[in-house]
Description:
Elements: H1 5-17, H2 21-33, H3 41-53, H4 57-65
Amino acid sequence: MPQDSQKSRELFEVAAEKGNSASMVNLGFFYERGKGVQQDYMKAVNYYRVGGEKGNTGGLYNLAGNSL
Length: 68
């Protein structure tokens, strides 16, 4: 099955708006890599940070492990 980054991003945005921290971290990854969106490091950092603050350590890990 082919991947649809645009649709995935849309679904992650809906879940993130409802407070889902994993979706926030996934959106951070999409913005960091430019998957289905224009690459935007500031948005990536924000999604990682907020996801991390909501308890998803993956967001904090991505912040610490990258040179964003």
